[in-house]
Amino acid sequence: MTPRRRPADRLVRSYVVTDGRAHPTRNTLDLVTLLIVTDDLPLTGLNPEKRRIMGLCRPGTLSVAEVAGHLSLPVSVAKVLIADLMDSGHLVTRAPIPAARPADARILQEVLDGLRARL
Fold it and tell me: Do 62 and 56 form a contact (C-beta atoms < 8 A)?
């Protein structure tokens, strides 16, 4: 009995999608790097995966990990495609908003004391 193929199984190998490249042109992409589509550049000349990335990111921002998940591609492959789109000016990136650090209780007490002194 032949194993049943899942929809996520790819008919095209990952190295074909990236034209044989294994590393992105930039080393600035993290899993949580946010991707933003730039002004309406033409999509002519983009392969289907790059067009799909543009379609996924057009309504809003997505992270590198989310794009890889939606495309059912390894993150390393998604990074190569995303870097290509950055190089062509189709995408820009933004670092995610850092998690807020808890405030120092001493500083908060000084602010509270200062406010009380003014009232």
Answer: yes
